[in-house]
Amino acid sequence: MYTLEEMKNMREMYGFSYKEISEKSGLPISTVQKVFGGLINRPRKSTLEKMSVAFVEYDKKTSYVVEEERYCGVLSEESAKYDSGYYDSGYDFGDKKNGEFTYNDYLNFRLPEGKRVEIIDGYVYDMSSPSQIHQIIVGDLYSEISKFIEKNKGDCFVGMAPFDIRLAAGNDDKTVVQPDVFVKCKSERKNKISEGGPDLVIEVLSPSTRKTDLTIKMNKYCEYGVREYVVVDYKNEKVIRYDFEDNCLIDMFDFDDKIPILIYGGKLKIDFGKIKEHIKKMKDIWEDFE
User: Fold this and answer.
1) What architecture is domain 4-61?
2) CA nearest to 126, candidates 88, 95, 166, 159
3) What is the pLDDT of residues 193-230, one digit of tens each?
4) For a pLDDT cut of 70, what percent of the chain falls above it?
5) Do 24 and 53 touch, CB atoms closer than 8 A?
6) Interval 94-114: pLDDT, tens
7) How far is residue 184's CA from residue 197's CA, in Å, rounded to a whole number?
8) CATH fold of 132-285
9) What are the pLDDT digits (tens) for 244-284?
């Protein structure tokens, strides 16, 4: 059972309406309104238990938001020492220890053909081969953003993995990432595509990158000037948008929504319903599409 304060926080964060809570909990909407409005000073335990039902299923699906990082903080190097499962796999990374690698070392890694890694705070992280669904989503996102920029005669650059972004170039240069999709617009402080944080980053979650995308990379993107961070969780058909310019405001969307992109003032809306239909079409055609 959640406390009333926890439910208030989740309602505010995810935009639940009183009607939704009423329908999921089985409580009258008037009771829900009174509890959240503070008109009932000490709600009964049975009432809170019923209200919790409205949140628990949703919370399980989005536990990566509730239980992981909910802020734009900066992880220390110690906090970044998650086991990548790759550094000790027998590949040749030279003489340096994990945590000491720089961009120059990264360029000289001797890896099998097709294998990709990132380094974050000097630590090596594996990038497993993406699934077909992952590639459909990345390709559709790249296409939609490219069309919008071209239609509006914009000069921002849209890129997709594999493309190296040196977030800390000119500083410690120990972080090199390959965002699934990114947009970078030129400014006085941003005059190189491959150096510094993009304006928009979109990461499509996969089992091997989920933890990194939702913690370490999210914090790095915030630290190095990314304005908007969008995380696509196709397994649960959810999209999380972090507005780093507005106190890391979090918005949650479904795969049936048209999601406004903030760096363009909401004029660009990504129709995830179309992406969902594209995935369904491919599943109907190919037996091994996953």
Assistant:
1) Orthogonal Bundle (1.10)
2) 88
3) 888 889 999 999 987 788 788 888 888 898 888 999 99
4) 82
5) yes
6) 677 788 888 888 888 877 777
7) 8
8) tt1808, chain A (3.90.1570)
9) 888 778 888 989 999 999 999 999 999 999 999 999 999 88
* Contact between 100 and 87 (Cβ < 8 Å): no
Q: What span, in angstroms and rounded, lies between the C-alpha atoms of 130 and 114? A: 12
Collect all residues with Cβ–Cβ distance below 8 Å to 288 and sequence separation of at least 6.
Answer: none
Q: What residues pair up with 158 in beta bridges, in sequence order?
A: 183
Cβ atoms < 10 Å from Cβ of 186: 13
Sign of the C-alpha dihedral, residues 99, 100, 104, 106?
A: negative
Tell me the backbone φ, ψ of residue 187, rounded to 5 degrees. Answer: -150, 180
Distance of CA 115 to the CA centre of its chain: 23
Sorted by where each begins, the domain ranges of the chain are 4-61, 132-285
**DSSP-assigned states of every residue in the chain:** ---HHHHHHHHHHHT--HHHHHHHH---HHHHHHHHTT-SSS--HHHHHHHHHHHHHHHHHTHHHHTS--S-----TTTT----SSTTSS-B--SPPTT---HHHHHT-B--TT-EEEEETTEEEEEPPPPHHHHHHHHHHHHHHHHHHHHTT---EEEESS--EETTTTTT---EE--SEEEE---SS---TTBS--SEEEEE--TTTHHHHHTHHHHHHHHTT--EEEEEETTTTEEEEEETTTTTEEEEEETTSEEEPGGGTT-SEEEHHHHHHHHHHHHHH-TT--
